[in-house]
Amino acid sequence: MSNFQILNYIYDIIDKGCDFMRVIVTAGGTGGHIYPAIAIINKIKAKETNSEILYVGTHNRMEKDIIPEFDINYMALEMTGLKRKISFDNVRTIINFFKAIRKAKKIIKDFNPDIVIGLGGYVTAPVIYSAKKSGYKTLIHEQNIIPGLANKFLSRYADKIAISLFGSSKYFPKHKVVFTGNPCSEEAINKKAIDKKLLGLSTNKKLLLIVLGSLGSKILNDKIVKSLQLFNNKEYEVLYITGKDYYEEVMKKVKVTTNIKIVPYIDNLSRTIKIADLIISRAGATIISEITALKIPSILIPSPHVTNNHQMRNALELANKNASIIIEEKNIEGDILVRTVDNLFKDVDKYNLMKKNCKDLGIEDSATKFYNVIKDMIDR
Q1: What pLDDT, in 10s, does the model give residues 146-196?
Q2: Helical spans, DSSP H, in the chain
Q3: What is the pLDDT of residues 64-108, one digit of tens each?
Q4: What Rg do the C-alpha atoms of the chain give, in angstroms?
């Protein structure tokens, strides 16, 4: 008898009236999929204290290292993504997909969940597909305005589809769609702001936060480095998070002054976002959900190197409602960044309007909304 079968036996003899869920969560590839999954798991554990969670991810992507650190049971599938160009690698991907389906069906049968939830990434495809074909309830979540390949495929196999941005609803069957927002936004609200002193920052100056993701971007780092000196001796401070791969290179090129702080990485970024007055960042789904929920005006620089240019579409959701300013990567030259920042800090009316519009867009109880969808599906 496997460990999962033993757990099932115990589950069968436990009073069903207790706070208890059995949930399989699957997500992978990037933090934009993984951290919303963790936010949902945390919410389930907070609401249903005796719940059993199993996370199914890939064998070689970042979730395999991140998830076990949260003391979450983890099982891996060998999966690779489809190349968008003709490639023999796609033959291997298809073979792995069918192997993953067989393994996923066994995992699901042994664990016997109340529901299977997918939060994006190609690993979700065999898991949600297998769950649906095996008669289990299925729920997927789309963080971006334009769905990825996995969620497009899974839209026919998911019982419900939760979305973060209203604009993505048109890509899915209307009767399945429910608007929850991105679960990360509620987590960001509930976290305690970091002490500025711990970062060597002043407590009485405004803060511009520049963040380019955990790994950063060479092209964008090079452009920002060229204009960073223009921020010297401003009345506000600048905290620049380069990404781990580019920190040393940046430090060789930049002469740091008292109002500019440069770091490679900050763990638990939302605690730092909370102390910012203005943010320059990419336009990933997670950071957008956090800055709107925390009501932080932003200058967004969408990555032009993502599928379907979805970061630009994400950013437009904010810019079209005067909650953010978009500057395309190709246009970052000269003093455009410092001029834009200075103008925003000086134009109090415009700044406050952006802050108000962020509040109107932000979802403060996103994880709770998502949990309620899960609960409703299980109880039916």
Answers
A1: 998 899 999 999 999 999 998 899 999 999 999 999 999 999 999 999 999
A2: 3-13, 31-47, 63-69, 89-111, 124-133, 149-154, 184-190, 218-228, 247-253, 269-273, 285-293, 310-319, 336-346, 348-361, 366-379
A3: 999 999 999 999 999 876 666 666 666 777 888 999 999 999 999
A4: 22
CB–CB of 163/172 below 8 Å? yes
HSE-up of 192 (CA within 13 Å, CB side)? 3
Interatomic CA distance for residues 276 and 298, integer angstroms: 10
Residue at token pair 């290179």: 249
Q: Are 188 and 270 in contact (CB under 8 A)?
A: yes
Measured at the CA of 295, the angle between CA 341 and CA 311, to 5 degrees, comes to 70
Rounded to two decimals, what is the model's pTM? 0.85
SS3 content of the chain, % helix, strand, coil (to 5): 50, 15, 35
Q: Which residues pair with 324 in a beta bridge?
A: 298
Cβ–Cβ < 8 Å for 256, 225: no
Domains of the chain: 9-182+364-379 (3.40.50.2000), 189-361 (3.40.50.2000)
- CA distance linking residue 293 with residue 344, whole number of Å: 20
